[in-house]
Every structure is written in C-alpha cells, then in structure tokens.
Amino acid sequence: MIRYLFSKKDWLLREAKDYLFITLALCLYAVGWTVFLLPYEIVSGGVTGVSAIIYYATGFPIGYSFFLINAALLVVALRILGFKFMTKTIYAIFVASLLLTLARGLVVDENDNLIQILGPGQEFMSIIIGCSLIGMSLAIVFLNNGSTGGTDIIAACVNKYKPISLGRILIFVDLIIIGSSYFVFHDPKKLVFGFCTLIVCDLMVDYVMNARRESVQFLIFSKKYNEVADALGKATHRGITLLDGKGWYTGDETKVICLVTKRRESVNVFRIIKVVDPDAFVSQSTVIGVYGKGFDTIKVKVNDKDKNLIDA
C-alpha cells in the first residue's frame, strides 16, 4: 500500500511537471508566432501556418482556425499514439488556441492593425527570433510527452515507428503548407521567407531534442574498480559493465568500467569517481545513439525475411 502511494505520488509529480513545461512552451510558441511572424505576413509550417494563410486571406481569427483544424486530427492521435498522448494534445490545443488569441490582442494598435515590434523591413530578424522560440517550444512539448497538434501529430506518429528525426518529418509536411501561401500573396519573396522559417524552426527542434537526449560513454580505469562500479550503479541506476584489460607497461591484469549515461548526468558521474578514487583515469566520449532500457527504443520493423536470414 505504501509503495503504491509513493508510485502514485511520483506519477502525479511527473504529470504536473509535463503540464507545467508544456504550458510554458506554449507561451513561447504564441509569442514567437503572434509577435514576430504574424505582423510581417510570414507563413511558417504546421497547422498554425495553415491558420495564418486563412487569416491573411479571409481575416478569420488564427486562434479559431487553429482549434478547428486540430480538432479534426485528434482521432489520429487517439488511434495511433494512445489516450495519454491525446489528453496532453487536447490540453495543448486548447491552451495554444487561447494564447494565440490573447497574444494577438497585445500587438494591435487602436485600428486593430498588427504592430511590427522590430520595425518595418525587419522580416529576416523576426524570422530568426520568432522561429527560434517556436522551434524551442515544440521541442519542449515533445520532450514532455505532448504535442501542439496538427503536423506534430503526423511527425510523432512517424517517429513512433521509424527512426526519422522529428525535424526532418516536419520539413516535408511544411513544404506543402508554405508553398500554398503563394496563392495568397503572389510574392516569391514571401515564399523565401517561409522556407527560411522552415529551416530555422526545424533545426531548433532537432537541436533542443538532441541536446536533451545526448548520451555519453565512460571508460574508467581504476584500481578500486569494485568500489567505483558499486557507487556508480547505486547513484545512476544504470547498468555497469566490467571489461577485461591488461596494462601494456606493467603487464598487470585489470578491469575497465564501461558506463553509458545521459550527458546531463556527467557531472554527477565525475563527482562520484573523484570521491571514490581521485587517481582514476577516465575517458568520456559522445555516443551518437543508445538503444535499450532507460534510453531510446529500436524503431526498426522486422519482417519474415529478416527472421529467415537469422534462422539460416
């Protein structure tokens, strides 16, 4: 019973943290779109880009069209990504729709015209700032098990089964959306600006997500390998592997500790090693991909042909 209560408490804390970070990320999203992109008539990708095109063409509020389009896509989230993902997606759609509407009210003058906060002729700078905020916000939402809906749902569905980066998936979908803005503005320069938003936003998504997921591998050479391995195992809750080694100069047999962990845990690993054995020799290297328990899952489909090759 006590264990159940503690696990329930941990689950509630994780969920509260997810919703808190999703909310903060959506604030960045609304500011990036409404303050920096919308006043300069710049169309980015995603459902927000579609909503922006509708707004420029008809004047229909961007927050309303954002909500209506996303509502039609929630069935996909329920069927493929599960109810938990859909719950946070619904929350994100409602909050984002509200924030987009409220944010627009903060950047209009007395004639209800959008104010170009950076001044006229600053389209490129608005792209850099606005898309950096948008890309960062999307990555934070994804990292906290959520989605802003729309093309994010499509990207999350593909990423669930295929080892394709989220940024790359979004690029293909957003190309179509940005290209369609030409039929509204009939200005090739607007298309160029739109493609610039695509590059900056999606690169920021990949940068933030990869920075969070980046892992490192430690090779630790220590005479106190038993004590070091025991301390690291208890502190990091990661698997520890002991490799056989032999010193070339001394000819002594030894053990080498191999540990793979998240980069953000590196400082703690070094601290533990220094406490147990200040004379230890440590090698740290960046790992491109780590798959298994505690890390990413292997997203490769196995068919009968693959099984037959192994059996043969």
Low-confidence stretches: 1-6
> Tally the helices: what do you get?
11
User: Which structural class do you get from the secondary structure elements?
Assistant: alpha+beta
Helix content: 55-70%
Main β-sheet description: 4 strands, antiparallel
Shape designation: elongated
Strand content: 5-15%
Radius of gyration: 25 Å
Q: Strands, helices and their partners?
A:
Layout: H1 2-37, H2 46-58, H3 62-106, H4 123-143, H5 151-161, H6 166-180, H7 182-185, H8 188-213, E1 215-221, H9 225-236, E2 240-246, E3 253-262, H10 266-276, E4 281-287, H11 304-311
Helix pairs in contact: 1-3, 1-4, 2-3, 2-6, 3-5, 4-8, 5-6, 6-8, 9-10
Task: Please explain how this structure is put together.
The chain is an alpha+beta fold and 312 residues long. Helices cover 65% and strands 10% of the residues. It is built from eleven helices and four strands. Strands 2-3-1-4 form a four-stranded antiparallel beta sheet, with helices on one face. The longest helix is centred in the N-terminal third of the chain and has 45 residues, at 62-106. The model is unreliable at 1-6 (pLDDT under 50).
Labels describing this entry:
alpha+beta, 312 residues, 4-stranded antiparallel sheet
How would you concisely characterize the structure shown here?
The protein has helices at residues 2-37, 46-58, 62-106, 123-143, 151-161, 166-180, 182-185, 188-213, 225-236, 266-276, 304-311; strands at residues 215-221, 240-246, 253-262, 281-287. It is α+β, with helices and mostly antiparallel strands and 312 residues long.
